[in-house]
């Protein structure tokens, strides 16, 4: 019984350590340190580099846990939009929610751009995120997509208009505010869906 309690205690401590390392990694990304070293992450978590490697084994394993954090964070901001609502209200709700979510994942997306070439975990994360957005678009605008002469192309265009890449061009490269980026997205959705009423 005593041995079992000790084992349980070690498991809980190991899990707390893993959580603190992921939290430190996320915090560094939010603060703008987009490519932190293992040493920087360990210091931010208040542990040794050896402890970090014992907890995760390699950076890909840490990336996987950090990606899981961002996906959960993104899911928490998701809103259910009734496909039966009038089109204008669906566009407004979708674009407002997408703006909140893109603002939230911005640090992770910027960091991933720097490291995707050498990380299969980050490449997989980007593909999964794109597919999730595409599914949401297909659900919220199902009626319009179904009546379009080119449904696949319309879905692609809506995805592009609400993608991180488009958001980054407007916000990071052109210096547009969050409100201006959201307005541009809404304008694109309205124009793309106008002929599908």
Task: Tag the structure with descriptive keywords.
2 domains; 79% helix; elongated
Helices and strands in order:
Layout: H1 2-30, H2 38-45, H3 49-56, H4 59-76, H5 87-115, H6 120-140, H7 142-147, H8 151-161, H9 164-173, H10 178-193
Helix pairs in contact: 1-2, 1-3, 1-4, 4-5, 4-6, 5-6, 5-10, 6-8, 8-10
Account of the protein in words:
- With 197 residues, the chain is mostly helical.
- The protein folds into 2 domains: 2-57, Arc Repressor Mutant, subunit A (Orthogonal Bundle), CATH 1.10.10; 70-196.
- Helix content is 79%, strand content 0%.
- It has helices at 2-30, 38-45, 49-56, 59-76, 87-115, 120-140, 142-147, 151-161, 164-173, 178-193.
- The longest helix has 29 residues, at 2-30.
- The model has no long low-confidence stretch (mean pLDDT 93).
- This is TetR/AcrR family transcriptional regulator.
- InterPro entries: Homeodomain-like_sf.
């Amino acid at each position: 019984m005593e041995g079992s309690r000790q084992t349980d205690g070690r498991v809980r401590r190991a899990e707390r350590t893993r959580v603190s390392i992921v939290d430190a990694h996320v915090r560094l990304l939010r603060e703008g340190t987009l490519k932190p070293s293992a040493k920087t992450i360990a210091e931010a978590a208040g542990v040794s580099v050896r402890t970090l490697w014992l907890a995760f084994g390699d950076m890909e394993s840490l990336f996987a846990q950090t990606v899981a954090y961002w996906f959960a964070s993104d899911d928490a901001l998701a809103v259910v939009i009734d496909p039966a609502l009038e089109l204008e209200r669906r566009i407004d709700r979708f674009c407002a929610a997408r703006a909140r979510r893109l603002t939230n994942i911005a640090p992770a997306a910027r960091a991933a751009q720097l490291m995707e070439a050498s990380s299969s975990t980050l490449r997989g994360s980007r593909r999964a995120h794109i597919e999730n957005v595409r599914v949401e678009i297909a659900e919220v605008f199902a009626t319009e997509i179904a009546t379009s002469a080119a449904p696949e192309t319309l879905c692609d265009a809506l995805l592009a208009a609400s993608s991180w890449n488009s958001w980054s061009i407007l916000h990071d490269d052109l210096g547009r505010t969050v409100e201006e980026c959201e307005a541009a997205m809404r304008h694109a959705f309205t124009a793309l869906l106008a002929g599908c009423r």
